[in-house]
Structure formats: structure tokens, C-alpha cells
Amino acid sequence: LDNGKKLSDYAILSRSSTDTSGLEVLFTKYDIEYEKFGGLKFFDKEIVKDTLAFVRVLTNYRDEVSWNRILKLLPEIGDKTARRITPLCIKKGYHGLNDFKMSGKRGTVITSELHKLSKMIENLMKTDNPKTIMSRISKYYLPLKRKQYEEMNTSEDKRQEYLDKLKEGAEDIAFLIELSSQYNKMDSFVDDVILEKKTDGN
């Protein structure tokens, strides 16, 4: 700043947490430190982290953290099973999803879900248009996340709280889609907005 003031001398007021998403992306892009009160920072939100995990495995199939995050979205897959599948993905990318084998009814469900995920990522790899990629991720992810929340073993009030959070998260994803439409190539979108935005290693 050239007026003698510090960044901490300024405050931005908004009516809702989602109103600041655009500013937060710019602050992060230009390495401007900021504090947010009344909600999580944009890149710290669970649903934003989930969404960007898909983008990260597209750009780096050896991203263990992102694979683990994605896999635990799927029905019947917890920490232990995700840790068994992730090495296959690190070795062979999304093709490794089809190499996992498990017997029994649960294994049938997991194998089916892994195949769906593999096909989805394969479709993402067929285009370099950021808006198309982000839209396809949203279409796959939001119903999956809703099902995960609906089937949680918790109280009805807590379940509704999660579903309300999903509505806000859908707005955040819509913002990412709109942001991605400003780019013609995926690499420029990733370099500009996503690649360096690591949040707590999760």
C-alpha cells in the first residue's frame, strides 16, 4: 500500500459468507494475507476441497491426499479401504480404480462405484475446457455428497444441517464453474486458481 496504511487497517463487510468468494480467490492468487470472521475461508471449505481434489488428480495422478479424499466420498469406502485403493491410483492413475478387487456384497458395490468414478475421470480427460470439466465434476459430485449426508448415522437435525451446508457448497461450486469459464485452457486455470492452494494437507 502506498498510503501509509496496513492491510489490517481495512475490513470488508458482506451479507453472507459466499459473497466474498471472488475476493478470497484474488487474495489467495496474489498471496495477500487475510482473516475471515463468521465462516471458513473459501479454500478451507469441505465441499470446495472435495471439488478441487478431482482437479488435482487430473493434473497429478500421484496426489495421494486427493485420491484418498475422493475415494472416501464413495459408498462403502472408509479410511481402511481407501488406503488400499489409493496406491493403485498412484501407480496407474484412474485406470488403477478398475484393478481393485473385493468379494461379497460390499465388494460388488465398491467395484461398481469405482468403475463409475473411472468412467467419469476418463470423460474429464477428453476435454481441456475448464468450464466443461468443472461442470462435469459438479454433476458427479453433488448427488454423491447428498447421498453421503442423507445416509449419515446421526440425528435428523444434524443431517439437515449438513444438507443445508451442501446448498451453500453448491453455490461455491457454481462460483468455481463461473470462474473457470474465464479460461480457455485447463492448465492456466489450474496454475492461476487451484494448483498452489493447499489447505492443511487435506
Structure in words:
- By secondary structure, the chain is an all-alpha fold.
- Helix content is 60%, strand content 0%.
- It is built from eight helices and no strands.
- α2 (46-59) crosses α6, α2 crosses α7 (156-180) and α6 (130-150) packs antiparallel against α7.
- The protein starts with 20 loop residues before the first helix and ends in an 8-residue tail after the last helix.
Care to give the gist of this entry?
The protein has 202 residues and is an all-alpha fold. It has helices spanning 21-29, 46-59, 64-71, 79-92, 104-124, 130-150, 156-180, 186-194.
What is the oligomeric state here?
single chain
Strand content: under 5%
The biggest beta sheet is recorded as: none
Low-confidence stretches: none
Q: How would you sum up the global shape?
A: globular
Q: How many helix segments? A: 8
| Helix content percent band | 55-70%
Distance between the termini: 33 Å
Residue-averaged pLDDT: 87
Order of helices and strands: HHHHHHHH
The radius of gyration computed from the alpha-carbon positions, rounded to a whole number of angstroms, is 18 Å
Tell me the number of strands: 0
SSE class = mainly alpha
